[in-house]
Amino acid sequence: MEANIILIIIMLLACVAALVFACRGMFSNVKTARNVDINKYMGTWHEIARLDTSFQRGKYNSQAFYKLNRDGTVFIINSATDKNGRKVSASARGYAPDPKDFSKLRISFFRPFYANYFILELDEDYQWALVGGNGKKYLWILSRIPQMDAETLNKIINLAKERNYDVSKLLFNKDLIPK
Fold first, then answer.
1. Which residues, at least 6 apart from 126, have a Cβ–Cβ distance to it below 8 Å?
2. Is the omega angle on the peptide bond into residue 112 within 30 degrees of 0, that is, cis?
3. Could you read off the pLDDT of 97-137 as tens digits, one per residue?
């Protein structure tokens, strides 16, 4: 009996170690924007386009508001309009595992569970951002203003294509608004 308990503990520790190792590897291999000034990134961002996600399905006019806390963490409020026309929101906490690299954040809406938030590309004037997560199933095109000119949008879409995202599956906010 005691041998079985020890074996179970060893197996659990091995699983945890493998999970931590796998997550660290995924985090470090993603090429992100360089020299992100977290203070300039703070404020309101409007979603222009995204890949479909279960947690955003049926929502449009999404915005994210970021505020830097005194302890260096980031307070986040995501808001949107649901299919019934109601405003909905969710708050989160984020932090940079490497305090010298704010292009790679860990975000949690439900602690203790965190997800990666990668600022993949960023306008030099902080007017637009291309944001992703692990793998290729999460992608957002964000802008400081609710509309984006076609030339800039096409440039960002091409950047996403170069990163092997399936841009044919992008959902554009303007198309999600009920008629």
1. 37, 40, 41, 144
2. yes
3. 998 999 999 999 988 899 999 999 999 999 999 999 988 99
d(CA 167, CA 129): 15
Residue 12: count of CB within 10 angstroms of its CB: 10
Beta bridge partners of 92: 76
How far is 132 from 32, CA to CA, in rounded Å? 9
97 DSSP 8-state letter: S
Distances 8 to 4, 15, 74, 91, 107 between C-alpha atoms, Å: 6, 11, 38, 37, 31
pLDDT in tens, 131-154: 999 889 999 999 999 999 999 999
Q: Indicate the pTM of the whole model.
A: 0.84
Q: What are the residues whose beta carbons fall under 8 Å from the beta carbon of 35, sequence distance 6 or more?
A: none
Q: What is 31-176's CATH superfamily?
A: Calycin beta-barrel core domain (2.40.128.20)
